[in-house]
Amino acid sequence: MKDNQYIVNSAASLDRFIDRAREVYGDGGYIVFEWKKGSDASMPQKALLHIWLDNYACHLLNKTRRQLTHWDRVAMKRSAKIKYYNETHQGWIIETISDPFCPDRKRKEPVSISEWTQQQCTEFMSWLQATAAGDGLMLESKGKYQQERES
């Protein structure tokens, strides 16, 4: 999800949105808002994945969603992708990148969620749901993910 997009689906996410709007407005500009009202059935799969990752990070770190930092979220996404790769050996989740200053130096990094296909996202979410359940957290199926699972 882009930095200038928010899904408001709870009181906590509404509070975060308002805080962010105040911060952007305080930087000396004006803000233009556009919105789209959606139902659970239209919730995009990748948006639900980000909500799940936040909920899982809160569970593991013993924090509220409001207490999660940007870096908590970054670390959760990266760690979950690496754990998925280590457990499933699915090569699509890892890419090899070169250092622009030293092209011979290469390293493996997780692929951005924005680059995943719907099927890859579904596979990862199924794994995440089972992994979270093993840690005592139930992640609720909703929207397109639920539709995909039921079809």
Describe this structure in words.
With 151 residues, the chain is mainly α. The chain has two domains: 1-37, no CATH class; 39-150, no CATH class. It has helices at residues 11-26, 45-61, 70-88, 118-134, 143-150, and strands spanning 94-99, 102-110. The protein has a two-stranded antiparallel ribbon. β1 and β2 (102-110) form a beta hairpin. α2 packs across α3 and α2 runs parallel beside α4. It is globular and about 45 Å long.
Number of domains: 2
The order of strands across the largest sheet is: 1-2
> Mean pLDDT, as a whole number?
86
Please count the helical segments. Answer: 5
**Structural class from helices and strands?**
mainly alpha
Helicity range: 40-55%
Task: Spell out the helices and strands N to C.
Answer: HHHEEHH
> Which percent band covers the strand fraction?
5-15%
Measured between the Cα atoms of the first and last residue, the distance is 26 Å
Low-confidence stretches: none
Shape: globular
Return Rg in Å. 17 Å
Count of individual beta strands: 2
Largest sheet: 2 strands, antiparallel
